[in-house]
Design brief:
rod-shaped, mainly alpha, single chain, about 65% helix
């Protein structure tokens, strides 16, 4: 009986952890979209990306 209770505790802890991580990911995405809307740097970790043409002539 104790193993079943421990398994449920691990399940609830994992579910709680997953919920917290998911909430953080959505918050980061919302923050990034707001920064893009304001035409500001949006978390590219310092890299500068340039649009390049994929069609070669």
């Amino acid at each position: 009986m104790i193993m079943a209770e421990a398994s449920m505790a691990i399940f609830y802890a994992s579910a709680g952890f997953l919920a917290i991580v998911t909430a953080i990911q959505f918050a980061e995405r919302a923050h990034r979209y707001n920064r893009l809307r304001e035409k500001k740097h949006a978390g590219t970790y310092g890299f500068e990306y340039e649009a390049t043409s994929t069609a070669s002539s």
